[in-house]
Each structure stands twice: as C-alpha cells, then as structure tokens.
Batch of 4 targets.
Target 1
Amino acid sequence: MEWSWKQTRPHHTDMATSSHHLSSFDAKQASGQRRSSIVSRSPSAKVDLKSGLEECEVALNLFLSNKFKDALELLQPWAKESMYHALGYSTIVVLQALMTFEQQDIQNGISALRDALHTCQKYRKKCTIVESFSGFLSRGSLELTNEEEMHAEICYAECLLQKAALTFVQDENMINFIKGGLKIRTSYHIYKDCLSILHILQKNKVEQQFFSEFEGGVKLGIGTFNLMLSLLPARIIRLLEFIGFSGNRELGLLQLQEGASGTSMRSSLCCLTILSFHTYISLILGTGEVNLGEAENLLAPFLQQFPNGSLMLFYHARIELLKGNVEKAQEVFQKCISVQEEWKQFHHLCYWELMWINIFQQNWMKAYYYSDLLCKDSKWSKATYVFLKASILSMLPEEEVAATNENVVTLFRQVDGLKQRIAGKSIPTEKFAVRKSRRYSLSTPVKLVLPALEMMYIWNGFPIVSKRRDLSENLLVTVEKAEATLQSQTLSEYLVDDECLVKLLKGCCLKSLERPLQAELCFNYVIQSEKLLKFDHYLVPFTMFELAFLYKSQGEMDKAMKALESARSNYKDYSMESRLHFRIQAALQLWRKTSSD
C-alpha cells in the first residue's frame, strides 16, 4: 500500500511562508486505509521496513489529529513483530506520559518501551552495526550492513532515549538519569556512531531507499541528547563528562532544526521537541528568556495542518501566554479542552495552565475552580494540588472562602499525608509544600503570607507577568498590602522569614516594572537577613539569582556573574535547590554565549 510522506506533513523549507504548500490530511481516511491494510495482512506475515515506516507515519498523524485510540490500535497488533510499529506505539504512550506527568502514564510508557526494545533487538546484528561498519571500512568496501539493521540500531537507541526522557520527568535532580548509566550510555554511543555512519554515507553518496528516515532518526537523537545534557547543572555535567557524556545546546538545537525541516517521519517529533524546549523547559528549568519567533515559525505549518490538534493548540496557547497575551492564551487553552474527550489527562494540563493564568490575573475564585478540578481529577501530585488550592483560598476574604465550603486549615493539614515517593525519593515541589504547610499543624496555626504568589515565583511565573505592566502593578499592590500588614504584627519566629519573602516578591514586581534601584533595595534586604532566617533558607540563593539578573539588565556583567556564582557555590541543602541550579546553568550558558558573540 502506497502512502506519500509529502501528502501528510507540512513542508518546513520556508517556515514563514509554508502555509500555502500544505495539503490536507484526512485522519479518518488514513485510519480506514491502514486498517484495511492490517486486515489483509496474514498474522504470520513479516512487516517489511517500508510498511512499518508508512504505518508508523500514519499513526503519528492520527495521534496529532486527536485520534489517539485509532493510532494505538493501528500499531499495537504488530508491535511485537515490527520495529517501527513497536517504536511508534511506545512513542505515543511516552508522549502521553510526558504531557501528563502522571505516574501511571509513566509506568505505562516504561512498560511499552521494554517491549519495544525487545522487538528492536530482534532486528539488530549480533555484533553492533558500528563494528560491522568499521570492518567494512578496514577492507575498503562501501557495502553496508543491510538497511533494516541500520534502522534497528536507530530505533533501539530511540527507545533508550525515551527512557531517559521519562527519567527526566520523574526526577528533577537527574540522579536516576546517572544511575541509569549503561542503557543511556548505550543509546548515546549508538547515536554518535550512527552520526559517523551518516557522514560517511553522505560523503560517499551511498544511495538508500529510506536514507532520509535514518537521517531524521540521527538528528532527533543527537539533538535531543545534546539539549537534555546541556540543561544539567555544572556538578552533574562534570560527573557525566567523566563517564563519556557531553552536551552542547547550540548543536542540539541545530540538529533538531535540521530534522524538523527535513522530510522524514521524525520531523514532527523534532519540531515538538524544540517547541517543548522553548515553551516549557526554558521557563521551568531555565531563565524564562525564550525564542518565541522560532517557536511560532515551527508551529505554524503544523497548526495549519492540524487546526484542532490538541497538542498543537496547547503549544499555540503556551506561545501566546509567553508573549503576555494571557486572554488569548486562556481562549486557546479552553479550545484545547473542547476539541477532544478521548484523552482526559490532557485536560488536566490545560487546567494547570488556566489555574496559573487566573493567579497571574488575581482572579482567585476562578483559580480555585481549576485547582479544585486538579485535586479531583488528576493523579500527578495530590500534595501539590491541595497545597495550591489552600494557597489560592488564602488569598480570598474569609466570607468568600466560607462560600466554597472549604476549610483552609484542614486543607493545609492534609498536604503531608498526600506526599508520595517515587523510586524512593520525594518530588521536590511536594517537599516544598509539606515544609510550608507545617505552620498549620500547630495547635494555633500561623498563616502563610502570600502563599499563591510564592508558588507562582517557584514556578517562574514572573517572566510571564513581566510582559504585562498592568498585571505587575496589580501584583505589587497586593504585595505592598501584605508588607503593611506584617509591619503591624507582633514579633514571632516566622516574622523575618515572612518579611524576606515579601521583599523578594516585591523586588520581582519592581524589576518587572523597571524600577531597578527599589528592586535592589528589596533584594539586598533579604540577603542581609540571611543569618536571621529560621525556615525559608531558600530565599537567599534565589534572591541572589534575581539580583544577578537585575545587575545584568543594568549592564553590570561582572557583578551579575559574581552574584550568580555566589548563588551556585555558597548555599546548599535548601528547598528547590536543584531547580535553581538548573536555572543558574541556563543563565551561565546564555550569558557566556552572549559575551563571546
């Protein structure tokens, strides 16, 4: 059965003007065509490379058209016989896990990958392809191992790479990533070796029927590995380099960009990886400085091809949000929910985003509505959700809280009992929520100050709010009210910590409003109070990080680098430490690149 790639994917050769090149894709028709192909195939028939690639490609398009069940049903019957059916099936299950972060989805992904690795292994040579290829070179021959075995190597490596990505989601400090050692090293070295093979194939102009698919697989793997490794804090990078890993962000992005603009089935996966980096990872684990122009250009042709694809709509909404267009983002997230009912977990991701948008706007009742939906429907982190719900209710007047039939003290007291352990470790955000909730376990609870805004800061919401002067000004009013309330309070063991939190939040608002001198006074207040803090020791290194960016905005790069290095080297064992180290690493890379340019 013939199926042309050119019919089913957008052209990327000119991202800005590619819309008129797009051909429509009828997911229903593709599903029907492929099902008839499956029915006509004998159960004992071997699925050849061509059929595997074609059907995997159609399944991916079905997935991007919200036909999740159809996509899985197309691939699953042959997942134990065909490497590309196995890879396609596991990729969809893993994509679901990466988008929901729910433990059951992650476990489903790991199970699917285990089966896919077994299937791919059947097609690999006993000796690795690289050993075979080296042998050919030593004999001066250009006759390569057959194409199917080459694709088995790249599929095997891709499954291992997906395992690394799932580990990344599970454990922010990447300890499991390092412990994974052998398997991830195997994937990394297969990709490096396949890149060498790719260069030799190109140099000697060797023709292969599915060369572009092999090339796309190499670029996806090399690009993703480099991007993932470049994110890691310096102390982890040093350890990884010792065992043979290295990461280059620019090389990673370049490989993925080339893959996204190619004609392979994996071009859409390269695109989605870049979009995830620019619209999500750069904000949570980076500085919040995002290449929105590239993200928009990459997304445009896919958004035109899949106008109701929930994944494409989600990234569209994220881009609008990062531009500061919160109302437009809200509208697109709502559409993202309405276009499909099959994959309910995806709705939870949209609820999470809508909750934050309403926090940015200080629409506390609407924010409460979405936090309550997450508490009821999502399984990712009940402790985090309940803490957020209680924190949002804390921002409301008591009469409005009473109307919800919720008890804030009871909610905060529930947090500790809801924490979970994954691979023997607690989730960092849950540990933070548990520590903050301890005030409410006292016989006379001590109220948290601006807990919803504190969580907004932890999740790096200020770079988004800073795009909107009105939102920043409204937040400053709220923070200054809390500041005035604290000044009239009697001395307590929590007072200094609360004052420092308020000063950090106030400094961030002032920085967003381009009032640097006042912002610096707030940040210095926190740093000078270091020895007086009793509980929230994280405030000082995070404040040093903010001060570094303030200095940079004033052109004082020496002071900025000194503050950043101080935040990285002089503090340890505080809440959300690994997240700050990710952000410091991202800032150092960005600033060093800027200075070298």
Target 2
Amino acid sequence: MVLSKHLNPDKLIQDAQDNKGPGVHIHSSTNHHAVHAYGARYGTQPIPKYRLPSKGVGAETAYQLIHDELSLDGTPALNLASFVHTWMPKEANQLMMENISKNLIDQDEYPMTQVLHTRCVSILADLWHAPSTHQAIGTATTGSSEAVQLGGLAMKRIWQEKRKASGKSIHEPGPNIVMGANAQVALEKFARYFDVEARLVPISEESHYRLDPRRAMECVDENTIGVYVILGSTYTGHYEPVKEMAALLDDYEKRTGHSVPIHVDAASGGFVAPFATPALEWDFRIPRVVSINASGHKFGLAYAGVGWAVWRAQEFLPKDLIFELHYLGSVEYSFSLNFSRPAHPIIAQYFNFVHLGREGYRNVALQDLKNARLLSRALEKSGFFTVLSDIHRPADKLATSLKNSVGFDEENVDNYVPGLPVVSFKFTDDFCKKYPDVQQKWVQVLLRAKGWIVPNYELAPDLQNVEILRVVVRENMSAVMVDRLVADILEVVDGLVKEDTPMRALAVLHGRKTVESHHGGLEKGSGSAYSGTYSRQC
C-alpha cells in the first residue's frame, strides 16, 4: 500500500489553515494561490498559480518569490544524469546577456550575428573533415533533437526523388530507417513524426550495448533511406562503429545498386572524438557519411539551447527543404524547423571556439576521460559493481599484453577504448546472489538524499531486463567530486547490505566520507562521553 495515494497534502494544508470563520469553503490548500513568507514584508497578496493575477508585483518581489521556488530544483553541478553543460566563464555569461534580446533569424538587422553563425558552421565542417568547408552547408538548431530531424528529412527526400526518377512508389511499402535499439528518443521521433518505419536493431553484450552493423544489414533494403549511427550511446557512452557500418553498406551497394547513406548522431561524441581521439575515423572522411549532428550544449561546452547539423556538401541537402524568405527588407534562407531562435547560444558557442581552441577542447576532453577512468576503476575495485562502459579498458589485446609485461602508459588516451566520459555500472552477479533483497534502484534514491542525481534505468532491447546506474562526467566533475561520489556510493551500498531497506539505510547515513576524512579529524570516541548537561532545561 502506498501511503501517499491515500493522503492528499493539499487537503491536509487546507484543514490546517487558520479558520476564517463560518461559511468559508476553500477547495485547495491555498485556493490555488501561492502564499509566500515575503508577503508581509512586501505587502504582497497571494498570487494565483494557474491564472494571470489581476495586478502584478514589483520586479524585486517577483524575483525573490520565483527564486525561492526554484531553489527546490536539484543542483546542476551534482546532476550526473545529464549530458548538458552547466558552467561557462563569467565573460561568456556577460556576452550572452549583452545579446540576449537578439533573434538569429533577423539576418538583415543583426548581420554580424549571422556572420558568427556561419563561422561556427565552417569551423565544424573543418573539424569533421568535410571535403570542402566552402561546399559544406549547415545550420544551428535548438539541439541535437532538431538536428536529427533535419538529417533524417534530407535523407528521406533524396530517397523519394530517386524512387520517383525510377518510376517506383514512395508509399508502398514506404520508407524505413535503421538504427540501434539504444538510439535516443529523438531518432525515433523522426520516424514517427515523418512517417518513416523505424527498424530498431537489438543490442547485446557482444555488440557492446550498441548497434551491431551485421545485424543492422539484415534490416536494410531498397526502401531504407539511411542508417543512423550514434557516436556515443546515451546508455553506456560507446561509439558505434561508423567505419564498419559504411564498409558493409559499400558492399551492399556493389551487390544491389542501392546506395544507403549514413547520418552520424554525434550529439556528444562530435565534440569529444575530434579532440581526444583525432585519428578515429567516424566523420566526413568516410564518403558514405552525408550528415552529422552535434549538441553545442553538451561537450561543446555551451549552455542549453544550441545544436548543429552539417552536411558534407550542398547536394545532400535537397533544395526544396531550403526556404527563400523575402522578409524584413532582405532575402534570407532557412532550413531549420524553428523560425525565430535566440542568438545568444550561438554566440556562446563561438566564444568557446575562440576561447578554447583545439588545445583547450582537447584538455577538457582528456580530463573528463581521466576522471571517468578514475571512477570506473574505483567502482570495479569495490567489488560491488560491474562497469559496462569500456573507456577505462585497454584498446586491444596488444595493449593488454603490454600492460602485463613491460608497463602501460595510463595517461595516454590512445591506449584505451574510445568513447564518451560516461560510466555505466551495475551490481555484480555475485553481489546480487549474496544480497537478493537489495534493489539497485535504491542506490539512486539514497544518493539523491545526499544531493547526487544518478539515474537507474533499463538497457535497450534485447537487454531491457538489465538495470544500470549511469554517471556522465562533465567538465565540472573534478577528481575531488569523484572521491566524494565514490565514498557516498560505498556508504549507501554498505547501508543497504546491513539494513535491507532504503528507509532503514537512510536512517543510518551520516556525514559525507572521503578518502581525506581522516586528515585533521577526530575519530569516534575521541571526545568525552555525553552527560546531558548541555541539553537540560532551565
């Protein structure tokens, strides 16, 4: 029985209100008004929650009221569930505020903003090895979700044009797109919103929890508009093998004459792989890759609200998807799903390009991966967890034999399996056998009590019966925070083992412990025994 289903907090608060006298009937805790402690100080009447107030309040009052409500949100720095970046230098914040009122679509009114946008597209085309940065074409988007839609639409339109040119139907049996079952929901949204059959390839432990190219080929036919290949699975951080997928599609085209393009969803990896592992071939160096998307607000290190879609050449973005607009005294071109769009996220992205350069981005990526390896090893050494992500493992058997014999350079990122700085882990099989009553999801709940946001959820089909905990190591996740996180995880698990239930474990959680906790601190029993003298009533 769930107690909260039988007790209505609004009703409890209503019954606990000061009685205003007979005849007063309130149907919610506050008659659907927000009542704040500052009301008396500012002379503010209760503010309706779900309708516009008849009179407003002062700006200072409005700020304080809303500020206090938002304090109930989680702490962004401790939100280890999200890939979205949460910190930028104060100069970037200032630059964004100076330009927060600009609309990117008003190209004639804000020409320099549009120039910065074009520079960003060219920088990314060069970073991702487009054959010609002058021929590549791209656009800013709200994020990778929009960019993925645009990449899919372009592939669908090209497929339709080819079918029409050969006198074949575009409706029967209709288009399909192939992707791993681990695909982020935005990829499936494209299929559903734009009437394309989504062919999801099941994942397996052998495929490293990502797309298996050979199984993907079983789903490809003449109606396949393209294959989505993900550079950085959101589940485990694994890069999908773009080069292997392309080679199989090359062979398929030789045998059948059907050309199936690849769109790389590099939402996170697009800003990690070029800097951490530049020799890895996943981008426009592979001819079959026709378009790439990435999120500037993930490892592009900008705040939420900016993504990018880039095509290897204009021929891969059909002309009828580009709108020519005669608007506000100029001729403008648009091929995004949104029209109006804030300019400041694009300006923030360009700030990062100028501020960090290749060296800065590489330093951040390498440090993120180093901290992710630190966390991975600590979790495995605890004996409680199996780590599913591989970024802390040697890249091949040769590296393994080298480590066991003459030494292994643990600082060199090239010695490891390439991937995102993501750590996915679960209880070991031995732990589950020894403590069958301990549920892994309780770790998420108890960590939240300490401020950490670490999600626990199921893997994609065919491994949906496997639950994982996942940590995204972003720039603000320092080695000191890794230390604290590991200490808190171990304390939580130790409490669950001893107490059997999350509520009893919560009751025994004490202050945070770290590997430094014994430095300058007193051990238990160092003080005199409690006598009660300092809590006696007068």
Target 3
Amino acid sequence: MAVNGNNTFLDHTSAMEVLKEYERRDGLDIRELMDSKTQGGLTYNDFLLLPGYIGFPASAVTLDSPITKRITLKVPLVSSPMDTVTEHEMAIHMALQGGVGVIHHNCSPDEQADMVRKVKRYENGFILDPVVITRDTTVGEAKALKEKWGFGGFPVTESGNLGSKLVGIVTNRDIQFETDLDKPVSEVMVTELITATAGVTLIEANKILAQSKKGKLPIVDKDGNLVSMISRSDLTKNIHFPLASKTKDSKQLICAAAIGTRPEDKDRLAKLVDAGLDIVILDSSQGNSMYQIEMIKWIKQEFPELDVIGGNVVTREQAAGLIAAGVDGLRIGMGSGSACITQEVMAVGRPQATAVYSVSSFAARFGVPCIADGGIQNVGHIVKGLALGASTVMMGGLLAGTTESPGTSFVSREGKLVKAYRGMGSIDAMQDKKAGGGGKDAQKSNAGTARYFSEGDSILVAQGVSGAVAHRGSISKFVPYLAAGLKHSLQDCGMTSLQELHDCVENGTVRFEIRTASAQLEGGVNMESYEKKLYA
C-alpha cells in the first residue's frame, strides 16, 4: 500500500496481478459485438478493435491468407470484377503486389480470354507455351506478335512449334530498326545460342541466364528440340516483386476472372481455362440460386483443377447450398458497395459487418475461405473485415481511381483529377453492348444484366450508379500503402499474423467496442481546414 495525503493506493508493482481480479476483459467479445438481437445489423463504422500489447515491430507481421481452399496470397487484397476496375493491367499489378485481380466479364469471351493470357504470360518460371515462329515468318509478322503480346523474344524452330528443332531466336533488337517488313526472320535472327538441357532446375537455369547476359534461355532436349524457355525479365521481376502471387508449378502470376451462370458462360469458361485461368468467380448479386448451384457442380466435374468462388451471399442459409455444391471460396456482400443501391431499391441485403461475421464463421467450419466484398473505404475497414473472419478483402471503388484501372481520367468541375467509376448494376453498365459484340441481343450477354438476373427485362431496374472517384496514383504505391497500414493495425492489436488474429478473435482475446454516432464523430478529423495525405 502507498499513502498520499488522505488517499491510500495499491502498490503499483501489483497492477498486473490486480488486473486478474476483474471477472471479464475490457470491451466485448465477437459474439457479444455481433449479436443482432441486441446490436442490430452493423457496418464497419459501427465498432472498433481494442488495442493489445506491442511486443514486435510491424515488419514482423505476416499477411499470408487463403483466397480459396488451395491458393494462398501473401497480401489479402483482391480487385473487383467491374469493368471500370479490373482488366489485365490491374490483374497483373495486383498479382505482382501479392494480391489478385478478378477480370470482369462485361466483354466478349475472346476478349476476356485474351486478358487472361496477358496476365499468365507476364511472368513465368519455365515458359511451357512460348510463342514460336518459323524461319519463314516475316519481320512484319514478328513485329505484329510483339505488339499483340507485349514482348519481342521469339524462338525459331524448324516447324514453328514447340517440340521442334531450335534453329535461332529473334529478339526485339533484331527487328526494331528493320524497315523491310517482308524479310524472313532467318536473315536477322540470332543463331549462336546458349541453351540448357531439359531437366535443369529453375534455380540452375536462372544462374545460367544471369551469367549468359542474354534475354532468353531456351531449354532443349537431347536432340536439340525446344521444350521450354526462361526469360531475363522474369528473373528481374522476381527481385523487384518478392511477394508476387504465383502458381506453384509454372511460377506464372495467379489470374482470376468472373463469369455468369447462363448456359453460354460454360463456353466462355472453357476459353478462359484454355488461356490458363486459376480461379473463377461466379458473379451474381444473389448467389443462392439453382443457376449457380448447377454451375458449381458442372465446373467441379468438368474442370476439377480450377478453383471456384461462389456468391454473393450474406446469410448462412445462402452459403450452405454453395458449400454443399463444392465451392472453394465464398464472396460476401449485398448492397454495401460504394456504387451499389441494391439495399435501397430492392430492400434486400445486409449490413456488411454482420454479413461477413455470420457467413465466414459458418464457412470456417468447412474450411471454406471468404472474401469480404464491398463497403471498403479505408485501411480500417480492411482490418475490420478480416477481424470478422474474412480471409481476403475485395475492393472496387477504392481501386477504381488507380492508374491501372480501365476507367477514363478527367478533371472534375472542382478542378480535381478523377476517374470514371460505375456499379455493374448501373444503367450505363447494363446497357453496355461490348459483351454481346454490339448486336441487338447484346443485353442478354451483358455482365450487369446477368449479375442482377435482368437479361430478359424490357425495363431495366438500376441497382447501381455511375460517377467518378479521386485519382489515387499507381497500384505499385497504393497497395503497399494498404498492406503497410494493415500491418500496423495488427501490431496495435498485438497480432503477428492474420491467422493469429482469427484465432484470438474466436477465443475472445481480441476485444471490440461499439461506436455511437458521437464516438464516430470524435474519431474523425475535427478541424476548420486540413489536408489529408494518405501516404508518402
């Protein structure tokens, strides 16, 4: 005991022991927080995580988390399959940063398959399907191939096919300044080649490539037939992007794409699989349907190596049917996106925090990872979605303003640089004719109408809006900022990994607090004027 005037205090060194006298920890556990009978439906803004003990640097936090039963990402961030968010550029750069991009399907099947190929060819370990040409291929044709694929090193074989005798390589340097487009590549190609023999390991092949100072290293069998290749640019990318999401076997970037649940989507999927697709997302605002369950079963039978993510769902009852059908992952959210008005127009949906907890806690019993899709406006929302049980977080509006999104940049009336962004349930998106090739039946092939079951409607009912979002710069800076913020948040909570976060939320170690309206106001900026820089 210590005495200070008329006051008597406990010995300060006993504080940790005295803490044990309290019957319960400060704050609420996850079940108390998410009890809808007492709390109602909660959004991300309605609560906070309470801090824990920091006993490690933020750099020690790991963010590895599964997106499907078989595929794990080093950064739990996913870009949404919206036509103003994810095409091949976004998918490539999301994968390079450790996440994954889901290519939208508001385009023709061939266009979507071509985007998948661009992602898969961007980075490789052993290139098992290189673009091969013959001696008779012209310089003009080689330049056209470079324009199409984005690279300019092509092996030349006797038959123009893989498995044929290697006779040379044509590089960008060989054709860059060649003006005679009809000249055969046999007159400009390099014939003195450094090669490796089939059976060489990737590490050994990379060493040979580094020592050779060449751009490509062909791998040949004992008879000199081309069997695969590796590229110097891929070796460089390995150094610059150590977190990149890659397949275990080919070391290519992981690629995901969305399709609908119509019969013609089966043909679309076949083209995507042929292009190298790793993950397919069944894109529907309400995933608990006979169409989606039948599609899941068909995909698992026809393409057993392809991972399937079902959704969208917001209740256990919706999720159960998709889990039983065999999904490898679930997508959670209905009406919570920044450009979505489903809850307002249809009066159907669920507040996102409640939806994520309800579905992910149920799906976890079957080992099915969940994506929290929608309602993400900042790093804090990402943390909360993951704390509630999601293994990854999907973003649309937050990424739509980046350089890599396909939206159009323009200056707003206020003089700010912005990019066009629209919900897939907006009238603009549902009337877009690209998916149907511009024909009179284009509405039936549109990704927006398919997602909201409106293909045959004579009057389209909007469930989304069109607008613009602030330009955020490149994914190469923005995603690392999000990941760094996530690491610091986990550090504040005393968690060294997402798995530990999930475990400690479940056992009650991580605590929460409800935020009243005035508490939310208190937690925001309260200044007459200020500048809000997110990262530097």
Target 4
Amino acid sequence: MNCLANGIPEEIEVSPKLARVLGIYAAKSGNRDSSSGLNANGLFFKSSESDLMNLFTESITDLFTVDLLPGNVSDHGLLTSYPVLISQFFDRHCGAQQTENSNLKRVPEFLWTAPTNICQAFIDGFLLGSGAKRISDSGVSMPCVTSSPDKDFLREVAWLASIHRIKATLSQAEAEKSADSPTLLWTLEIGSTPSDLKTFHLQQQNQVNEDNDDAALAFLHKNATIESIDRVPFSGYVYDFCGCDNEAFFGGNNAVLLHNSKVRSLFSAARQKAPSIVFIDEIDAIGSKRNPRDQTYMKQTLNQLLVDLDGFAQTEGVIFMAATNFPEVLDPALTRPGRFDRVVQVPLPDVRGRAAILKIHSKKMHLADDVDLSVIARGTPGFSGAQLQNLLNIAAIEAIRQRAKKVSNKHLDFAKDRIIMGSERKSAVITPESKLATAYHEGGHTLAAMYTPGAMPLHKVTVMPRGHALGVTVQLPEIDRDSVNKSEYLAQIDVCMGGRVAEEIVFGPEKVTSGCSSDLERATQVATAMVTQFGMSDKIGLVAYGPEEREKLSTEGKRAIEDEVRSLNEESNSRVMVLLKKHREELDRLAKALVEYETLDKNEVERAVKGLPIERDPVPEELKK
C-alpha cells in the first residue's frame, strides 16, 4: 500500500495492526460532534475510552513512524489528531469522515482478498471503536452487537465476516427519537461460526496488554480458513439479485420483494459504483413474455428493467448478466440487440468435461489403483456436473458401508446404477408369479435392444424393484450424440414394445399386465415427435407442428396425425412380435437367469441367452448380515 512521503513511509505493510487501526477509524469517523471542536484530521473518543485512544495513537506511531500529540481532554471526551497525509490515507481506504448529509464509509478494498487474520483484526477494531455490547444470558457469552444508521457499511462488514465463516446478522433496530426526526438504526450481531457454536466474548478494555498488541483483540476468534481465493482483474462492485423474490447487495441481509423501485435503485447503484457487474439470476421470473391479459402490476417490473437497460452507454463500465433455464419464455424485447443480445449456451458436459469434473470432485477421495476416471466419464453420457458429484458421493458412502479402504470400480458402478435406475426397494414383497412376469417383460426389452439395428447398446437389466418400477432395462450410448436418425427412432419404439410383446407371447393377450403403460407412453412420444417435428412421416410430409400449432389444425389434420402415430406403434409391435418369436428360446433362458440373479450386465446377458453359466464373485459374509 502506497502512502505519500514527507516523513511518512512510502509503503505501509498490510498487517493485523493496520487493519485494526482502520477498523477503529471506520467506527469512530462517523461519530463527529460539532460541539466537540474536532477538526477533519482527528477522532473523538469518550472519556471511558482512554485505553482505546492510546491503542489507536500508539498503533499509528508504529505504523507511520510519526509522533502524535497526546489527546486533548474536553468536557465531551478525548480528542486526538494526526497529520493531514494520514487523514488522506484513512479517507482513501475507508471513505471520508461522515457529515450530516453524507454516508461515505466503506470496507477497504484490499480486505476482500486479504487473509483471515487481517480481516478479523479489522472487524475487531470496528467492534472496539463502535462500543459493541455483549449480550449475556446466565453468564454465557453471546455474540457482540453494535448499531448504526449506516446500513450499507454494516452490510459490508457482515459480508466480510461471512466470507471468513464468522456468523453475522443484520437487522433493523428501533428508531432513535429526537427533536427533529427519528433516526433509523440497523443492528449488526456478529460472533458465532458454523463450525463451532461457541461464541466470542468482549474483553474489558482495561485488560489490554500494552506489551502485546495481539492481546488487544476484541474477540477470541475461532480460526477460520478460506479454502480458495480466485483473483480476477475486475476490481469493482458486484450486485447480485434473484429475479424470483429478493434483491441482495454483497450477500444481502433479509429477502426484499422485487419491484420496479428496486430495479431503479439497482441500476442507480451500479452507475455510482462503476466499474460494476450486475447479475440477475432466474430472470424468467420477471422477464417472461408479456400478455395483454396480464395485470398491470405484473408488467411494471419488466417495463422498468427494459427502460433502464436502454439508458446505458458503452463507456459507463457496467456489465449486465442474467441466467435462466427457460430462454424460450423470455420477452423478445428483453433479448433484442442493445439489451441482453449475447447468449452463452451452457450445455451438459462432453466426455472431456465429465472427466475434468470427476477429477476435481475426487481430489479428496481415496480411489483404487484400477479406477480410471476417463472410463467413468465415457460411461456417463448426459450426466450433469451435479450428477457426477453425486455419483462420487454415493460411491464413497457405499465404500464406507462395505468397510472398504478405497473407492473401487464396483462402488462407482453401484452409484451409477442408483442414479440411472433409482434406489433398490429390497423390502418390497414380490410374488414368484409377478417376478417371472417382470423377468419376461424385461427380457423382451433386452432382446429387442440386442437384435434391433440402430438400437442403443445394452447396459444392464434388473428385475429388482427400483423406484416405482418393478424392473428396469438400461441402454447407454457409446459416445456423446447430438443427432438421431429415423432408423434409431424406430429402434427406440421397438425396444419400448419389447416388454408388452414378450408378455403376450408367453402368457397370452389376456394376461398382458399394466406394466407396459410407461413403455406405450414413451413410444407414443417418440412417434409423435417423428410425425410432427422431424418430418419423418411420408403421409404427413415435411412439416413441423408445435403444441400450439397442433391445436389450430383442422379436425382432418389432427386425425391424420393420430392415425400416423398409431400406425408407427402398430408396425413396431408387429416387427418385435416376429423378432421375439424367432428368439423364443433365448427369451426363456434370459428370463430364467433374471429370476435367479435379479440383475445382469451386458456380458452376463450375452452368456445367459447362449445358455452359458454366469460366474460371479461370492458376496462377503458381513454384507449378507
């Protein structure tokens, strides 16, 4: 930190002592009293704060290598003064001293990336200078509380404390009554940490040890750590608020209903604090398409947002960003050029992205030597970052449950199956007849997936109840895919029909169960998309009808679409009927193996349909118990 010369060092080392002095200054600079005769280059202390004044002046002497005159005693308290250059130094980092019509205090910029001990020293100095009071309850020390009309500054202090895992709460206090007008006060309660509910206690100032500056700390802090600090070139302010229900400044204090006045205040603050970044999360909550039937108040916030977005020049140094999961519902006026005209797509990660995500989340895990994260990444197409993190978490829990020292491929496969197929319902009571019917049903899906050209590769099949299903057949693509052709869509319908066709072949048409309902639903969805969206029907032609457009079609048009969808499903049913009758013996072998082993992977399925024995490692005795 640079400081002017003339007897004062050109550089002042950032230390807890300096941070504590700045904290005391930030607390005391708002206590100007016109009747005290204080000039602009000094602070006013109460008569009972002589030890605090001595600490402040001695620290300045050590830091700036200047001799300060002893404090003057007046009827109002103690006055201390320092050179103009030191006053300018304080004003540059903490803001100018407050007057009746100004509110300029702020947390020094360097504290936002400073270590924990530096930030704690600033908070300690601020609480010492503001005369923070201790709340006691039956002799148990509680968090310290201080009050001030400067809400913005208290909010910055609360956010600084929260960054270092020190609990801080900002709330509105009762207004002070005065002859002129009441003053709105805000209360900052600061103290306990999430990791340790033991609270700090305020030391009596007459116990300050002059030989050890560290003893002047106002709190006995729990040592908190910052896991990581990302340094970026941007050095301005960041305003963050959620479009659904609240507005936040540096993390905020209480949820505030978002309306047009909050939007105006946000844009005004962004201009004043430029360079700044404004980030609006869930913007679809306030930026959805306007409808003439909507009430006026429902459009006021969006209208105000549009007006304010138009009022920015490229040189103002304000960047606006927003996020949504539903870009299609945003009002066109919001996304036109000059407003939110740059769209950044955030798709699901590809195989390299999944491998990198798995590597990050597995840093603190003990993985077995044979675990290859790239193999796991290739076997989890379509997984999001959150699902990959959940996969590793489930695998670690399963490893602990099995008392394993490291997470192995077996545990990772268990976690992947649980995410894809759902949790096993081992407590479900399944009759032998129902289990056999489920085995044939899933066997039909499996053989359709194995022998239908264009079908996705088989991953695993189980008759163990998972979620709401009595059995599950899972297919996974070998690589990430961006497009699907017509034969592959027809193969999807064939696989869906495999379960119902197998039941009809084995048990007869009258014995077909309701377990095919979800299969028919999926098959109908695929067939409808082929007909109405992808132009894959010769009868309907090369057209694309969305849900709204289909509602406007004539009766004949709707009937033609329904007939074509039904035709695709029935043709698929006929193809699968021929396929399974041809492989009836393999269907019986597979159903028998499913009844015996309940869950089979791809290799075990191939051995089962060939009539070969299935080899498995014995289950440990402790897991059987």
